[in-house]
Amino acid sequence: MRFGVLTGGGDCPGLNAVIRAIIRKGERVFGDEIIGFVDAWEGVMSRRTLPITVESMRGTLPRGGTVLGTTRGSPLDSPDGVDRVRSTISEMGIDGLIIIGGNGSLTVGEILFREHRIPVLGVPKTIDNDIEGTDLTFGFNTAVQIATDAIDRLHTTAESHDRVMVVEVMGRHSGWIATHAGLAGGAAVVLIPERPFDIDEVCERLVRRHSRGRFASIVVVAEGSRPAEGTIELPDQTRDEYGHVRLGGIGSIVAAEIGLRTGFETRPVLLGHVQRGGTPTAFDRVLSTRFGVAAVDAAREGKWGSMVALRDNNIVTVPLAEAAGRSRTVDPDLVSNVAEMFFA
What we know:
Blueprint: E1 2-7, H1 15-30, E2 33-37, H2 40-46, E3 49-51, H3 81-91, E4 96-101, H4 103-116, E5 120-124, H5 140-161, E6 164-169, H6 176-184, E7 189-191, H7 199-211, E8 217-222, H8 250-262, E9 266-270, H9 282-300, E10 306-311, E11 314-319, H10 332-342
Parallel strand pairs: 1-2, 1-4, 4-5, 5-10, 6-8, 6-9, 7-8
Antiparallel strand pairs: 2-3, 10-11
Helix pairs in contact: 1-9, 2-3, 5-6, 7-8
């Protein structure tokens, strides 16, 4: 068989491990031919490909990023986009496309399958861990480890200068990274999109810590966190070329408010894209490999319109419709169990 592979959306650690696993399973076990499309859907529509084989993928298991490149564009954004995708598949003799992507890419894939019967299969990818239908996405474990390492380092400088350090991490609609890194890193306060925060409550917690002789504190803020209505005025938000709200900056706003209201020396720290880069953890390498192997099996079984997923530590396939257009938020039970100690 002949499959096309593309990586869409934001990059994350583990993408190359998935591609490598697809190649090794498809080429070595079944003799399949794998076509790598460069820069996601742009490559599919313009037929820009990269030869990928077992040999060419050697040494990529520990490498971050994606050898195929990635963009956030979609064939649904242009009048002839779907026809160009269909033409590429037909004229190149491709049996189907394996899409390694996040919410946006998987939603596009689901629409292409449901409305246009284009054979696609999804592999869930995002550091945010916010894709429905799977217990975990690869990239998340690495991002949490990177954020936790940063928090560990910030503890020492915060304690040396008696400062409050406000660490902004990624998390547009869900606070998975903030929650896990905040708990693992011993943060005093964690702010997440699922729970609008009261800045007065945040400051009260820090003041109470200060009164107990804890003069240094770490506050972890997910980039999509928002204050409770009527508490803080936020600046107008801009959008990128794809219509997505540009996030980032809430950490600086929170830090400024804390400093103003408490008088404590406060510093914002924006981790940004460092969370996306670098070597994937062992856990993410294994999960990525399991996803890649399962994707080949599912494609050969004709399970188009589905997505490989982790459920109860087993790799299964679920309908793409379970993930399309939806965001998986932090488990309310997890928040409620530790809210009094960490969440404002």
